[in-house]
Amino acid sequence: MGLFDKIKKAFTGKKEEVKNYDKGLEKTRREFVSQLSNLSKRYKNIDDDYFEELEDILIMADIGVDTVVKFVDLLRKRVSSEKITDASVLKEIIIDELFVMYVDNGILDSKIHYSDEGPTVILFVGVNGVGKTTTIGKLAHQLKSDGKKVMLVAGDTFRAGAIEQLEEWGERVGVEVITSKSKDPSSVMYDGLEKAKAEDYDVVLIDTAGRLQNKDNLMRELEKVNRVIQKLIPDAPHETLLVIDATTGQNGISQAKSFKEITDITGVVLTKLDGTAKGGIVLAIKETVGLPVKYVGLGEGMDDLEKFDIEKYIYGLFKDL
Ligand SMILES: Nc1nc2c(ncn2[C@@H]2O[C@H](COP(=O)(O)OP(=O)(O)OP(=O)(O)O)[C@@H](O)[C@H]2O)c(=O)[nH]1
Ligand SMILES: [Mg+2]
Questions:
Q1: Cβ(248) to ligand 1 under 6 A?
Q2: Among the residues of the chain, which ranges form H helices?
Q3: Ligand 1 mean position to 240 CA, how many Å?
Q4: Mean of the pLDDT values across residues 161-184?
Q5: Which CATH number fits the domain that encloses residue 207?
Q6: Exposure winner among 52, 240, 285, 313, fewest CB in 10 A?
Q7: What total number of domains does the chain contain?
């Protein structure tokens, strides 16, 4: 039995557990996966044309050109060494190999690291409109449901309406939001962390502005933010999560590369997967950027954030095959 069969079996009958993945990956499943399925129906024999079409399909799913070339190369070798001729057999091997590629070279740590003592500080960064504030709202809801005392810090003092947006989330999910009239994000972060320490908060989620600016300015700004946070909590931020919009495809990959150069990113939140057929981007982030995806956004609602789980992801993608 192949790896995929095992995954499929593991989640069969566990609808609730994979509900968000199932729903959120529908677009990718419909386009990418059905093309894959058609391909193996159309080709009786595996030849060069087959591999070329396969390459195109994988590139369209935003797995990333380099990764695809490497992957298809590996498949060609397997096909020739194992003398595989049947395209429907190869279809299953493709899924297994995609899975192996993700978990290979050491599984990236997709867990959030919570502080043993004092508040855990999670900083959210990313370009504008990717879903930082929404992700904070959703995560606050999850953490609160887990019984944690959660604080949101409105560190986006730049965009009009940003503070109100975070306040709305705070109200909706029932957690405290710290705001300030000051235009300096550092001052609201300082106030928030001071309160979080004094009042024993478990988790502090810090929103930041998604303004577009050059690398040097952004680097300086993030250095300042980190300095301020560390004045109060020396080992914070415990996580710096980069939020990427999956619908922007390879653009998101370049953002990840840039942010990784200017600050210490501990993980990625990949949002709006429900709005794209390019779910292959998860592989590209791992292969070309080397960052772990820690959360995925699978819709706009407050329950539509999931811890990233490669097995559930693979299930959501290929369950109909
Ligand atoms: N479909 C879908 N929409 C999402 C998801 N995450 C966020 N959004 C939407 O994306 C839009 C932008 O989200 P925000 O949270 O405001 O993004 P932001 O990064 O905080 O934006 P700025 O503060 O302007 O930099 C909103 O309309 C959200 O509802 C998701 O997982 N799925
Ligand atoms: Mg925002």
A1: no
A2: 3-11, 15-24, 26-28, 34-42, 48-60, 65-81, 87-103, 132-145, 162-173, 185-198, 215-232, 250-262, 281-284, 310-318
A3: 18
A4: 95
A5: 3.40.50.300
A6: 52
A7: 2
